[in-house]
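Support request from a user on the community tier.

User writes: "When I paste my structure tokens into the form, the page sometimes reloads and wipes my input. The last time it worked, I copied everything first. Here is what I submitted, just in case something in the input itself triggers the reload:"
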């Protein structure tokens, strides 16, 4: 990780210090994704079989996972892992149920009743990666809020292994949550199938889930097409920003930075501290922990683009964090809770020495599908609301029309919209409307 002194930088230097790594081959990836999506739209399952053979090394006649494969997966999974999935599912369900949108109604004037009703999005498509590290936790993070939202048709896509089967833990988690259909598909072709539908995959109204550069580009592509599908949120490589004071534990700081760096070579790790000694110690600890990490080559590539920033105090540290708008914000300072009031931009916040970011990835209860690449300035992570539509309703009787109709007519006249004015006037005094 490179080191910078925040107060020695001008505006341009500060922007450079907080810049995420450029997404490699973005133009090339976008062109390839457009080709894949077009092929899937044109040839459906036939193209999916060819692309699955090419990219996943699996020969599949049938994409849909049957009960027999689900049964095998349930028997194959280690009991300790099954228990951990069950425990995590219970906490995720409890947290998300508490925040689910609720309908409400209010009388805004006598005879005018306005409501907001809640309806589930159907069908929804969930993408669960399974490359170098299958992610059953992502199946929980997506499927549980979808079920709580009331989605009737939930289609989960996950890449097959070379033997043609899906990861057993992902299958167990999906079945545990109530997913209605699981298909063995990965990459941009999976997103295309979910967005447009094929013989085996229902067309979905909205597509959710993280993925690599091809998956991300495919989601962006289908979201821009009126015939495609909505998506959950803008996302890129995983990232973390750690704010640490002088008494923070260097081993904890280093561990949280590495937890993100091991996701992939394009992950981003940022450390912000008022203490030069803490930065020194944390960087030494990084090297020590990295040496024994199984995915050290991946993590080392990510850390090469990381940055350690020295600031003048914790207030300035939070200013830097808000400017960066991290996916994950880890606050390892004394009395961390009091710093929360200063947090404006973050996907998920982890307060205190004993709140490693990894808990949020798996089992604290919050969702780990979060905005990245600075999108936390305006976007939120996945929740029950992500799977729902909030529809407004108004019911008006004659007294209500008489009470608020003149207001609408005046505003319509001011905007030069005569038909709007007449739509009210014809009801209030039909005999004078011509």
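"...and here is what came back when it finally went through:"
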């Amino acid at each position: 990780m490179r080191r910078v002194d925040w107060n020695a930088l001008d505006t341009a230097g500060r922007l450079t210090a907080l810049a995420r790594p450029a997404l490699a081959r973005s133009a090339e990836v976008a062109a390839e994704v457009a080709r894949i999506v077009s092929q899937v739209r044109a040839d459906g399952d036939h193209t999916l079989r060819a692309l699955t053979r090419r990219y996943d090394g699996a020969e599949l006649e049938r994409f849909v996972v049957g009960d027999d494969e689900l049964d095998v997966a349930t028997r194959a999974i280690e009991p300790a892992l099954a228990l951990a999935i069950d425990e995590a599912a219970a906490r995720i369900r409890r947290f998300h149920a508490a925040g689910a949108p609720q309908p409400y109604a209010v009388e805004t004037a006598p005879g005018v009743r306005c409501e907001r009703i809640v309806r589930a999005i159907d069908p929804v498509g969930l993408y669960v990666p399974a490359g170098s590290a299958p992610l059953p936790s992502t199946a929980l993070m997506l499927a549980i809020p979808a079920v709580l939202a009331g989605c009737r048709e939930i289609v989960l896509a996950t890449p097959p292994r070379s033997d043609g089967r899906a990861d057993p833990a992902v299958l167990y988690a999906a079945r545990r949550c109530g997913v209605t259909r699981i298909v063995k598909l990965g990459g941009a072709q999976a997103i295309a199938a979910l967005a447009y539908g094929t013989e085996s995959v229902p067309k979905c109204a909205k597509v959710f889930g993280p993925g690599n550069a091809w998956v991300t580009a495919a989601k962006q592509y289908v979201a821009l097409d009126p015939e495609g599908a909505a998506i959950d949120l803008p996302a890129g490589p995983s990232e973390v920003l750690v704010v640490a004071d002088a008494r923070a534990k260097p081993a904890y700081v280093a561990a949280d930075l590495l937890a993100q760096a091991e996701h992939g070579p394009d992950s981003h790790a940022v450390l912000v501290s008022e203490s030069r000694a803490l930065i020194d110690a944390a960087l030494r600890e990084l090297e020590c922990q990295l040496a024994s990490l199984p995915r050290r080559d991946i993590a080392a590539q990510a850390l090469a683009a990381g940055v350690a920033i020295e600031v003048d105090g914790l207030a300035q540290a939070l200013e830097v964090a808000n400017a960066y708008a991290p996916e994950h914000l880890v606050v390892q300072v004394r009395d961390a809770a009091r710093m929360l009031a200063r947090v404006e931009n973050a996907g998920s916040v982890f307060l205190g020495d004993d709140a490693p970011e990894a808990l949020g990835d798996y089992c604290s209860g919050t969702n780990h599908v979060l905005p990245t690449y600075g999108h936390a300035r305006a976007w939120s992570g996945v929740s029950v609301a992500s799977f729902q539509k909030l529809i407004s309703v108004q019911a008006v009787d004659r007294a209500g029309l008489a009470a608020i109709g003149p207001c609408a007519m005046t505003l319509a006249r001011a905007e030069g919209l005569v038909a709007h004015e007449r739509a009210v006037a014809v009801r209030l005094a039909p005999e004078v409307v011509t």
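Agent notes: The reload is a front-end session timeout and is unrelated to the input. Residues 44-104+119-231 form a domain with the Rossmann fold fold (CATH 3.40.50.1980). The CA atoms of residues 139 and 174 lie 6 Å apart. Escalated to web team.
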